[in-house]
Design brief:
mainly alpha; about 170 residues; 2 domains; globular
Length: about 170
Amino acid sequence: MLLWNIFFVFFRIGFCAFGGAYSFLPLLEKDLIENYGWLTKEEFLDVLGIVKIFPGAISIKYATYTGYKIAGLPGAVMANLGNIVAPILFIMLAFGLYAKYKDFPRVKNAFSMIQLVVFAMIIATAFQVINVNNFLNIKSLAVVTIAFCLFCFTKVHPALIIITAAALGIVIG
């Protein structure tokens, strides 16, 4: 029964996680701390700090941590299955509808508007995650400019740009 509870908690979270990674944190907190007591508030915040340093979706990392803590490897598997089933179903439905209606002018207009809004949100997020005061110096501006140019005008893989920046940060300080 515990494994099914883990599955359904993360299924519900995956089903309701619209709007990106941070939109579902209140859902996680409510279920993992208040409803089931699987994590303490302190542990929840510690996990949030830890998951930020690893690549990948925050929901997958929370599912893995919580499921493993509660029921070992089977718990981690069930939590992750629950976490991905709803988005998979939504994506299949959306792709089916898109394939059928993608050539309709209003659908094309909708996707054009969505692209503009996503672009604006990416820029806004970029400004939210960086301390603007730290950004306004020659070294920071050089790093941003070089990374931007490498990404936009070369075929250098983005992962290589990130790894190189990390290495330079360690060496240069």
